[in-house]
Structure of Kelch domain-containing protein 7B:
Amino acid sequence: MPRRGLLHAVSGEGLSLAAAWLAWAPLATRGLACLSRALRHLWALVSSPWKRPGNASASLPEPWESCPGLRVYRGGDAEAELLTVHTRPYSFQVDLAQLAGESAYFQALSRSGMQEAVGGHLRLDHVPSPAFHAILQWVFLGRFSLAEDELLPAVQAASYLLLPGFLDRCRLALRPLLGPQNCLSYLRFAEAVGCPELRAEVCGYLSTHLLELAAPVTHQLPPRLREELAGLRLQGPPKLCVLQKENVTRGPRQQPPTRGLYCRPLPPEEGGWHCATHLPFQADKWSFSTAQLLNYLFIMGGYREKRGARGFFFRTAAFRYNPLTGVWHPTASPQKRRRHFSTAVVGHHIYAIGGWYLDSLLAPDSSTCLYTAVERYDPWADRWAFVSSLPMGDFSFAISLSHDLPLCTAHAGSIYTLGTVQRTGEKLLLRYDVDADAWQELLPTLTRADADLPGLYFLGGTEPLFVVGGNSRGNVVTSFSVASRQWGPLRSLPKCGLAGQGLALEGLLYMASPDLGAILMVDLAGPDCALLPPPPFPLCYESLFLLHFPPQAADQGGGAA
């Protein structure tokens, strides 16, 4: 064959091979692309258990992102037309009817006859595709799996699309993640996107740990929000609580193991006493006064601690108990070493009034000096400060005498104390104006001719203030109207000993009666009395108060010490 012909034949064969390659190249490219996607999907399935939250940008795409078939969600009717929802950056095809059953947004869309519903296309370009995918997984498949960094976008989308069920599930997922370092960020986010479910969850966390978070978090909140959080602490049912304030007679071997804070349903509800918590210290002798503030129990005073081989001394101490968590925390002690002193709560402050030197175990007598200094405790700063002292003058006040009877109460922004004029035996009320930081006498006095009350047991109530006292013939109830400055009539009560810190609530007085061995419930407006079962320890110097416990733990015993 001539050389020219051979070259011509070779060139024709090369052109045929090139044409064949150009025909198969697109098919080969598509095949390689499918193989690449399959390998990526396989890698995603294998590596998904090791994905870390927060590294989504560095991870491979999810299968549903690269496969449109995985973004189709059908309901029970397989023949129903699907709505195409365009999110950022992917689109989904969904059964509108099933989605409308969970979302008020899509329910309104399905009934509106709008162009989006009729045309089968809805643009939600502001909704991130991962958030919408999580919603569809929950609505159609009942699956919920969101990392911490995926929760907030999903909450924002669900809040916009009005999906209360999904928001509740997000709220439960967020609960164990809340902490001091992120709770304010979550609160600001919930308020910014207008999500009441998320805000309620964060506020619930803040209120449960209100004072525990005071220094880093809640102390910086606006007063109105702090009041809201304080109100949330009262959602659980109130319980009548009793605590032994003092033990200065029994040795360690006689110390019963049942000492603690006991609670029972508030009458007229029936129920027995349950131990909510034990005291946060170990001691054979102690003396504490109590106060209830922001649904916390505060105890302030001290306990005896061994020093050396045979010596002892009293250590000042103060604690607060959170009934919503069952945990005690130490707090600052009063600056005076007080025992047998009264407390009153006004606003968000506790006032310590009267009392005797802590280290003296003897009953107060004519040689024992009563503290006139008054201190105020700020729970947000955990700090005590002195305010105006008691104007003792020629008055001998029976504020927390030897039987530990705190004749002190608070009402309408003022503190009232009841005392006895030493020379005449008249009963005189003093009023402390918290805002003015000043004391004044409230005249007239209650003379011996009006009422023979050598013993005073209780001062409390609202308007009027009730006074309970006793003489050799029996006990007496009278009242004093702060508004009209008048004493009320006398009413007789059965003769019995009363001791400790009583509680006046809605016209009823609850107070320990050691000689009856029970809690006495007195109708302050009438002569009716009733006995409540005693707690499982002998009554002596008990304090009665109200605490609100979580609903699920209201009728359960136990607690953390």
Notes: Residues 3-47 form the longest helix (45 residues). Residues 1-25, 32-58, 554-561 have pLDDT under 50 and may be disordered. DSSP finds eleven helices and 33 strands in the chain. Residues 111 and 124 are 18 Å apart (CA to CA).
